[in-house]
Structures are given as structure tokens and as C-alpha cells.
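Hello,

Our lab assistant flagged a job as stuck in the queue for most of the afternoon. It eventually completed. Since we weren't sure the result was trustworthy after the delay, we are filing this so someone can double-check. Below is the sequence as submitted and the structure that was eventually returned. Let us know if re-running is recommended.
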Amino acid sequence: MGGVIGGLLDNDSAFGKIMTRCGILIGANVMFVIFSIPVVTIGPAWTALHFVMMKTLQSEDGVVNPFAEFWRSFRRNFRQGILAWLLIGGLAVFIRMDVWICGNAGGTLEVLKYPLSALGIFLVIFAVYFFPVLAAFEDTLPHLARNAVFFAARRPLKMLLIVLLHIVPVGIVYLDTRMNPLYAFLGATCAFAGIAMASSSLLMKDFAGFLPAKEGDRKERGAPVQSQKEILREIKRLGQ
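-- returned structure --
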């Protein structure tokens, strides 16, 4: 009996691997919640959460230290993550206010709310892709922004699925207020990491062609790195 239980709890068993993965998800999720408390740090925290998920997917045994990896990515992507988050958040507030103003103005001005809403949708898609791209690639903000648009436009159906992974849970929380205590518990323990893991699983298939084949090929930063020239060559090839 003891041998059966010992085999079940072994790290190499199916149950052990599942429990290890759950531990990584919970650990990374807790780190994300804590580091997002100042609000302005959500950008680098969301980037770090994706970094942990990508490291887990790339690891041969699927075992990483979520606390150490989260802190490493958060620290190294802090400046770019905050700047991008403030720019995206500021633009989102601006668009939302303009849509509200145009919607209440009536007349010809009301028509402007439609292109503004379309711009808002594009901003959501861009934000969903930008922070995983920041986690996976090392480059300047303009190049990272271009790469985010490139990966989003490259697989439209996959892009739609990834965006739904992010907005559907928000819609459920907003509409089903009776279950908010349960949603708060899930958000504090595993929900954010679950979304990041699901989206990272889809994105890594697109990133794979631009990432180093071996763990040792990475730079000191710790994130997968690929030259901007190769991505630009791929963009030009797809445009021909």
C-alpha cells in the first residue's frame, strides 16, 4: 500500500506532474496578484506571468521555480512593461471617454463612436499580444509593438481565440455578480495564471520559429531572444 501511495506521489508520476504544474500556476498567480497591487505595475507583472508559463512549457520536465522566474522577468521588463501599460491604459481611457461623449452628443458626431470603438477593439488585441511578446523577445518598444501586430495578424482565428480567453472571463465576472466571491478566490489563486498558460500554449507555437532551439542559446536576460532581422524577413516573405 505504501509503495502504491509513494508511486502516486512521486514527481515523475502523472499525478505528481499534475500537482507540480498546479503548484507552478498557483505560485505564479500569487506573485502576479501581489505585484499588481500598485496597478501601474500590472504591465510588467502580466509580462512576468507569461514568462513563467513559457518557461514551464519550454522546460523538458515542466518544472520551474515560479517565484524566481517571475521576479527575474519582472525586474528586467519593469521599465518597458510599465511604460507600455501606461500608454495602453491612457489610450484606452481616452477612447472610452470619446465614445461616451460621441454617443451622448447625437447628430453627426455620434457616428464617430463606431471608428473609435473599432480602435478600442484593436487596442485590446494589441494589449493581449504585446505583453507575451515582451516576455518572449528582447527588443525596443517600437519593434516589440510591430511584432505584436505581426503575430496577431498572422493567425486571425487563433487571435480571436486568444482574445476570447481574456475577455470572456471578464464578461462572466461582470454579468454574474452573485458568484463574485468564488471568482475572487479563483482570481487570487489560479485564474490569471490559467489564462496566461492557455494563451502561452497557443502563442508558443507561433513564436517557436523565432526562438532559440536550446535553453543555452538565451541571453542573460533569461527570456527567449531572436533577432529583429529574422522577424522582419518573415514579415516581408508573408507579404510577397
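-- support follow-up --
The delay was a queue issue, not a problem with the job. The result is valid. The chain has a mean pLDDT of 84. The chain has eleven helices and no strands.
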